[in-house]
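Technical annex, item 7. During the second reporting period the consortium partners agreed on a shared format for inverse folding records so that results from different sites could be compared directly. Each record opens with the tokenized structure and is followed by the designed sequence. A conforming record, contributed by the partner at site C, is shown below for reference.
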């Protein structure tokens, strides 16, 4: 990190989840251990009130917020999320199992500062059940990808990837577990690398 950045305030990360939240936990633990240096988790937002990740964040003393979509249009839902992130002065948004496509307005508000993690080697197998897609296609190698988020599903420039070989005996569950273990290492590394580049405004 440059001496300039070291003297500035800590980078504030906002995390969006919809479910289990294991990648959110991996990021929170990396911030705590300073494997992601000079950063804090400003807020964890879920669109699902029953997301298991909410309790995991709260246990770690992280502020949580539920913002449900309800019957609203996507742009309206996203406007409320962007307002909540802005209110917490978030510098970097990390999607961690957030099961919605962001509106163009959301992407524009944080362009170049939204990351996602996906359980395949993008651009192969975007969308849901990427591990099942990889097994059904018969590829011998899959993995995970951290990418910048744009308006498309699992699109946007790739930041980092890690490969996971597929075994003859793999099931969706066994492959998903091995990929997830790599996700938990890759996401903190990628966030750390991105934060070293992102300007943190005082
Ligand atoms: C992960 O496999 C991630 O790559 C994908 O959704 C899953 C979320 O898991 N986008 P978790 O909620 O982080 O445990």
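Designed sequence (site C submission):
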């Amino acid at each position: 990190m440059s001496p300039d950045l070291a003297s500035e305030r800590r980078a504030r990360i906002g995390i969006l989840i919809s479910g289990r939240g294991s990648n959110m936990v991996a990021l929170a633990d990396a911030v705590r251990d300073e494997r992601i240096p000079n950063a804090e988790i400003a807020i964890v937002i879920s669109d699902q009130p029953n997301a298991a990740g909410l309790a995991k964040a709260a246990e770690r003393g992280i502020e949580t917020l539920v913002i449900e979509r309800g019957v609203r249009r996507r742009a309206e839902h996203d406007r409320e999320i962007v307002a909540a992130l802005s209110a917490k002065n978030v510098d970097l948004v990390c999607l961690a199992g957030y099961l919605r496509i962001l509106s163009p307005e959301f992407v524009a508000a944080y362009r170049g500062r939204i990351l996602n993690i996906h359980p395949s080697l993008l651009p192969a197998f975007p969308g849901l059940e990427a591990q099942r897609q990889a097994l059904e296609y018969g590829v011998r190698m899959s993995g995970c990808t951290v990418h910048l988020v744009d308006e498309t599903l699992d699109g946007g420039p790739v930041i980092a990837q890690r490969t996971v070989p597929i075994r003859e005996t793999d099931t969706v569950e066994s492959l998903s577990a091995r990929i997830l273990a790599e996700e938990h290492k890759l996401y903190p590394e990628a966030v750390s690398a991105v934060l070293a580049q992102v300007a943190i405004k005082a």
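DSSP finds seven helices and seven strands in the chain. Strands lie at 11-17, 39-46, 64-66, 92-95, 114-118, 141-148, 158-165. All partners now use this format for quarterly exchanges.
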